[in-house]
Design goal:
It contains 6 helices and 10 strands; from the N terminus they run E-E-E-E-E-E-H-H-E-E-H-H-H-H-E-E. It is an alpha+beta fold. It has 2 domains: 128 residues, no CATH class; 87 residues, no CATH class. It has a 3-stranded antiparallel sheet with strand order 2-1-6, with helices on one face. The chain has a 3-stranded antiparallel sheet with strand order 3-7-8, with no helix packed on it. Strand 4 and strand 5 form a beta hairpin. The longest helix has 19 residues. It is elongated, with a radius of gyration of 20 Å.
Length: 228
């Protein structure tokens, strides 16, 4: 994820509180940037693969939320495309490198410190095509907004939230949708169903009881929040 970063490891839905271990896949960069590793169990052609991914995340994003977003994307992409896990991870590597303006080398896959032989997957061809044509980012601006503000509301330009305003995890879909629609990035957002789908695609779990029920931006630019 973009911006100043902190590194975490995902492992089938759990953050590991221990020292880093060798990566399962090493996607080297020319500027020694961070490389990635994904946490899930995948089965392809009867072969089960346990996968771990190192990732960097923006310091405003909680590591569990960053992990859940990556894991949700990985699982969704695995089901949609039915491609081997290493191809999906290479897609993530390429998209992240293009977004951050980095250069990457073909990943060298390993298991328990031993190199694995994987069939040619056209990584260099896809990398060159991505450099030429670009790639859609894994997360869009609204995704980042939701992740950064999920647990605590961050300042919006010169606007500061009152201390009693909770993060989006305690906002109703109606209130959250109204807030995003009032922002420059949200002029084309749809209804509450759109927001719930967006939230689920990021793997985010809201609180069972919402404290913020509605959001209204008046013509004078002042915001009104219906909060418990």
């Amino acid at each position: 994820m973009a911006g100043p970063s902190r590194r975490r490891e995902t492992d089938s839905g759990h953050i590991l509180a221990r020292e880093p271990r060798p990566l399962a896949a090493h996607g080297a960069t020319h500027d020694n940037g961070a490389t990635g590793k994904c946490g899930s169990d995948e089965r392809r052609n009867g072969v089960r693969a346990g996968i771990k991914v190192w990732f960097d995340h923006h310091p405003d994003i909680h590591p569990e939320d960053a992990r859940n977003a990556i894991l949700a994307w990985f699982v969704r992409t695995s089901k949609d495309r039915r491609k081997p896990p290493h191809i999906i991870l290479e897609k993530l590597l390429i998209a992240s490198a293009i977004k951050d303006g980095k250069k990457v080398l073909p990943p060298a896959w390993s298991h328990k410190g031993k190199a694995l032989a994987v069939p040619s997957d056209g990584f260099e061809t896809r990398w060159k095509r991505a450099q030429k044509d670009g790639r859609e980012p894994i997360l869009d601006k609204i995704d980042y907004f939701m992740l950064r503000n999920w647990r605590v509301m961050r300042p919006l330009g010169e606007f500061r939230w009152e201390p009693n305003v909770p993060g989006l995890c305690e906002w109703s879909p109606q209130a959250a949708t109204a807030l995003i629609r009032s922002l420059p990035i949200g002029v084309n957002v749809s209804d509450e169903t759109w927001y719930v789908k967006k939230r689920n695609r990021l793997g985010l779990q809201s609180k069972r009881r919402y404290r913020v029920h509605d959001f209204l931006l008046n013509k004078d630019g002042l915001a009104r929040i219906d909060i418990d």
